């Protein structure tokens, strides 16, 4: 038997046929056409999966289950809400069952799905308690307890990017002030660089962005950091300080064996991991005890497909 | 068979014989004489328990287990650290087994123990996921997952009073700035009242403290609040605002069925619970969904004995 994992993102949808060892045997992708609406996107997924099976001489009878990762929240009634896709309480479970009538259907938040992938086959393999932070445009999170994904009593949990951990000079998209997402995302890194440069600071970052503030991305800031640019060092030092506070909160609360860092920002893992344990230890309550290992995710963008397959 | 629960506090030790329905049949207590040191206090407990059994015609053979709640941390090696008792990595498990050789011994952090008591017989009964905040001199916490106490991979978890949730005008005893404990404890309420009065504000609180700033306690602040004292309203409004942020962090992370409030401050439950759900809902990510019920603990100080008995 095989499993299908579908990773629904804000711009693209990836799908794969996965074996029981977590290996992606066949894969495909398509664009997320938001304006087609909820049912239109589900139709695209149906066509994509049928074609994937057909092209690889597979039959739906050989598929044990199809799992979906979504960039939002599925409640216990099977209704999905994804702000970026303009889905607001859509009938996710029912509409998928209608399109795929003879196979098990599962769905979860995308970061939770990635955490499951990392837990079964990647950086958190074997850990009873593990927490994944995905640092990208926003900050997502997945919690694994007893080697199972954990999202609480109503499915609202593991939104650890929206923990309030301080006070910031701008509000989060969620309406609160001080969310992890406003300190530790790619967006946070870009915004703080722009702020310092707008305040008149000279920086290599602006050269890398060809003089255009709006073109700055997180990679440029890390690249400038490698060239010892003072502004980049200030931005990354601030980012790492808040990341350490965030991880300490996670340790003081959930005390995982492993904290794993995924998402686009984690490509600069050498810079992020350098000295992070000492920084985190400064903020935890019991400073002399063993604390979580802090590592980078290993499955990359495949975690979404693999994790979804094993929901 | 019966169970014994022992609640070791900073000033007193309470012990009780508990039946399998969570009823305390017989109880006793003694002072915590810190200067006697670790072994001296354990000797006192041994004498107290032997006497408790003898006076009630019970035999140690009728006792299934003895559980201990401690105001600190017991690691996976059975070593205990309690700053207030000046215990620093003492051999808790071994020394207790030596004193009580023919009975099961268990130990846990006191707030975690109280959470277990509330989960089995009190305010969190039947909830798969529950979180207890004990608001007293400090802020302790206990997490219940799958109806079992949860303290993470190394036993460091559930220290939710030391989540960083903002920036405060004084540091926490733990060395960090912005811990829940510095916003939501009795100490925090007292300190902020003193600060406002020292800044020249007139308040009924000072009358209740007979003009002596040092005599202010949390009860006086709640009493002045009931008399519509402006300073007390400001202090309690700030306290409730941070409490709501804290509970929202807990919902965004663990999404419990129930959040229960215990500890001395919870005696003002009418004031604390009034409007708290609306405040919390302001800060959670998914504002339209069902969220945790927020209630007050029901076992009071008995939660420590009952929870310890059922470790």
Characterise this structure:
The structure is a homodimer of 311-residue chains. Chain A is an alpha/beta fold. The first copy, chain A, folds into two domains: 2-117 and 302-309, ATPase, nucleotide binding domain (Nucleotidyltransferase, domain 5, 2-Layer Sandwich); 126-296, ATPase, nucleotide binding domain (Nucleotidyltransferase, domain 5), CATH 3.30.420. Chain A is built from eleven helices and 13 strands. Chain A has helices spanning 37-55, 92-99, 110-121, 181-184, 186-198, 204-208, 218-226, 230-253, 269-273, 276-283, 302-309; strands spanning 2-8, 12-18, 24-31, 63-70, 73-74, 79-82, 87-91, 104-109, 129-135, 139-145, 148-150, 258-262, 293-296. The first copy, chain A, has a five-stranded mixed beta sheet with strand order 3-2-1-4-8. A five-stranded mixed beta sheet of chain A has the order 11-10-9-12-13, with helices on one face. The longest helix of chain A has 24 residues, at 230-253. The radius of gyration of chain A is 20 Å and the shape is globular. The mean pLDDT of chain A is 95.
């Amino acid at each position: 038997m095989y499993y299908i994992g579908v990773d629904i993102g804000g711009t693209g949808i990836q799908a794969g046929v996965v074996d029981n060892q977590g290996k992606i045997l066949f894969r495909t992708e398509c664009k997320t056409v938001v304006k087609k609406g909820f049912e239109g996107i589900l139709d695209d997924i149906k066509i994509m999966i049928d074609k994937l099976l057909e092209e690889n001489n597979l039959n739906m009878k050989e598929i044990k289950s199809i799992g979906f990762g979504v960039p939002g929240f599925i409640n216990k009634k099977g209704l999905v809400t994804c702000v970026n896709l303009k889905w607001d309480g859509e009938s996710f479970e029912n509409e998928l069952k209608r399109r795929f009538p003879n196979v098990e259907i599962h769905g979860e938040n995308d970061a939770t799905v990635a955490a499951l992938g990392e837990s079964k086959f990647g950086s958190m393999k074997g850990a009873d308690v593990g927490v994944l932070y995905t640092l990208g445009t926003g900050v997502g999170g997945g919690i694994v307890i007893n080697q199972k994904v954990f999202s609480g009593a109503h499915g609202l949990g593991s939104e650890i990017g929206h923990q309030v951990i301080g006070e910031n000079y701008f509000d989060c998209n969620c309406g609160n002030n001080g969310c992890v997402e406003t300190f530790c995302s790619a967006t946070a890194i870009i915004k703080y660089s722009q702020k310092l440069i707008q305040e008149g600071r000279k920086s290599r970052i602006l050269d890398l962005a060809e003089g255009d503030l709006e073109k700055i991305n997180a990679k440029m800031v890390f690249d400038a950091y490698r060239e010892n640019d003072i502004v980049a060092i200030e931005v990354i030092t601030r980012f790492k300080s808040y990341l350490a506070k965030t991880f300490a909160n996670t340790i003081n609360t959930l005390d995982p064996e492993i904290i794993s860092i995924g998402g686009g920002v984690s490509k600069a893992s050498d810079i992020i991991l350098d000295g992070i344990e000492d920084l985190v230890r400064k903020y935890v309550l019991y400073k002399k005890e063993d604390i979580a290992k802090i590592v980078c995710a290993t499955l990359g963008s495949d975690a979404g497909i693999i994790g979804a397959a094993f929901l």
